[in-house]
Structure formats: C-alpha cells, structure tokens
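Late entry, evening session. Most of the bench is empty. Finally got around to the prediction I had been postponing all week. Sequence below, unchanged from the version circulated by S.P.
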Amino acid sequence: KSDLNIMVGGTANRLIEYDEKVTIPSLSMLLFNGIAQAKWTYKWNPKVRWISGLQSMMQNNTNALNASDTLIPNARVLDAGVFTTLTADLGKWNIQGGVRYDFRGLTVDLLSQRRLNYQGLNGSLGAVWASGKTVLRTNASSGFRAPHLTELYSNGYHHGALRYEVGREDLKPEKAFQLDLTLERHSEHSVVVVNPFANYIRDYIYLQPMDTLMDGIPAFSYVQNNQVLFYGLDVGFHFHPHFAHGLHWEVSASYIAVNSLGDSSVSLIPQPRLMNTLRYELNLGKKIRLKDLVLQSTLMGPQNQVAFNESTSNAYHVLDAAFSLIFGKKEEFTLKMGGRNLLNTAYIDHLSRLKNIQMPFPGRNVYFSLAYAITRNF
C-alpha cells in the first residue's frame, strides 16, 4: 500500500566571462548545487492517496580571486521544505488538498558575515470534475518565495543581460494567493481549453530601470511593490478532423494584465500573444514520408503596462515555415528545411534581455539539416 522514493544529486557550474582583457576574467564564479528529496506515498484504498515528503537544496557560490569584478558575493544557501497532500477520487470529482512549509537560510560573506532567514507556510485546494466530453478544473492556493542571492546582493555588470544590477538586502519574501479555473471541451474533431486566472502578490520583487548609467551600462535595481494583482486569460484550440487525418490546426492566445496598488507598475509584463499553427503529415510512398509541413504565425500585441523608466513595446508579426521528410529503406534519413521570420519583421520582444540596448531579433533566415540514424547493434 505504500512506497518510498529517495533522490540525491549535485551539479557544479563554472561561469567565466571576459571583458576587455582576455587574460584576466571579468567574472569567475563556481556554483555548486546539492539536492536531496524523499517522497512517501500511501494508498488508504483505491480511491484515496496520501503523499508526504521533504525536499532540500544546498548552494555554495564562490568567486575566484583573480576576477576583476564580483556580481554577487560568496554565499551559502540552504533551502528546506516539507509537504503533505491528500487526493480523493469521488466519481466524477477528483479532489486534492495539501500544505507545505518552506525555510531558506543564507550566509553571505561581506565585510562582516551576514545571516538571513525566511520561512513560509502555504496550502492549496483543487478539484476536477469530468463528465462526458467536458472537464472542469479549479484550484486555490497560496504561495511563498524568498528573495534569492542575486536580488539581495547584486552589485555589478551582468554580461548576459548587458545591464548593471543593484540588489537590496532589505527585500521581504513574496506572498501570493492564486485562483485558477480551466474549462476543457472535447468534440469529435476538436478540443477547446479556456483558463482564466488571478494572482495577488504582496511584496512583489522586480527589476526597475534606474534611468542612469553605471560604468557606461544601463543600470537596474531590484525593488518591491507592496501589492500587485495579476489577472488574465489563456485560450487553446486544436482542430484535427478525421476526414483529413494528417491536418492539425492549433491556436493559442494569452493575455495578462496587472493592477498595482503601489506608486509604479511592475516591469517585464509579457505582451498579448496570438499564435496560429497549421501542420500537415502525409505518407508519400513506402520509402518516403512527410513528417511535418508547418506554417506558424505569431502576432504579439503592444505592451503599454510598464514600470517607471521602462520603455513600451510595439506590436509585431512573425511568420515561420518548415518541413521535414523521412526517407530510406528503414527511414534512417531525416531532411529538415525551413525559414524563420519570413516577412523580415524588425522587432524587439518586450521580455528581451537586449531590449535596453535596442538590439532587434534576427531577420529572415533559413536553415537546413540532414540526419542519419545509425541502427546497427554493436
């Protein structure tokens, strides 16, 4: 009636970035991550299941002594969490509820050693109702996110984003409450999914442009907004007619808005998006098969909900096309060709890390690949 799963692991990531001098690194950091988790599942009966567990992660960030700059200081981070959930299958209804406790402790090496602790208790309750071709899902949950090391102690040039980042040691943990509702409707040839949502967050952490330069680079600071309400809608549609079995038409749309009760809106809100994808599959003979013929249109709306000193973004449209063929006696060859941004649209996405230097995305480009699958057993 029960089982226990245990997992442990670790990774080491060395980051070295050079600026003007190729012999002396601008940044040189070693980040070690160690994780351990255990999950226990107990089945009360065929319809009721209880899952409990714990998770932990240890991080150690070390800067090399020969680096000319330090983006974040040497630090140790310990995350620990314990949770329990209960799932019940009640005919057309499936109900799940749970609680979780999280703790984060940081030890930071500055002129004097700093220790910071954060903790939070959260819960969730969700239900799924399925009847015939209709599925309804609803969920209410609270959330907790402690500030990470970058948000607290950044003070340097982030080469990957081409910006100077400044952290704040007095940041508070984010606390959130979210409501989700998903309606899924199936028919003989199609599926429609509608998902409205709302997420209320206290002490929301975000990057705000400072309207100044540091070391000749645009500067950004991590700040908090006391109360923020995100709300929006995701819609998906998939049409797959049986009379044209190889045809697929997929549509997805998303919109998110924000109401801020602070002095400023928040930054990096995604643009409204509408994506249309036509895909066709066809067998051309015994030795050749059209795996995919794809035409994709992506329409992004303008973004005018911006923070202080953040620039707005214009609408744009991108058109892509591609096909792939599989051929050979054993279908061992795969030929792929396609074109991206066929209309050669000049655009900068609102979430682009390179927006602050006004670097556009790539223009029209084509690609080609030929792959051979080795199927021999050695």
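Two things to note before I forget:
The mean pLDDT is 92.
The chain has one domain: 2-267.
Will write this up properly tomorrow.
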